[in-house]
Amino acid sequence: MVRRIRRRSVLQGTVGAAAAVAGSAVLGAEAAAAPNPRMTSGVVVRVSGVVVEVELTGGGTASVPAVGFPDGWQLRPGDVVAVANADSDGAPDHAQPLITPVTGAFRAGPGSEALVGGQPVRVVRQTVREPAAAAPGSHAVALCMENRRERVLAAAALRFGA
Question: 9-98 architecture in CATH?
Answer without folding.
Answer: Beta Barrel (2.40)
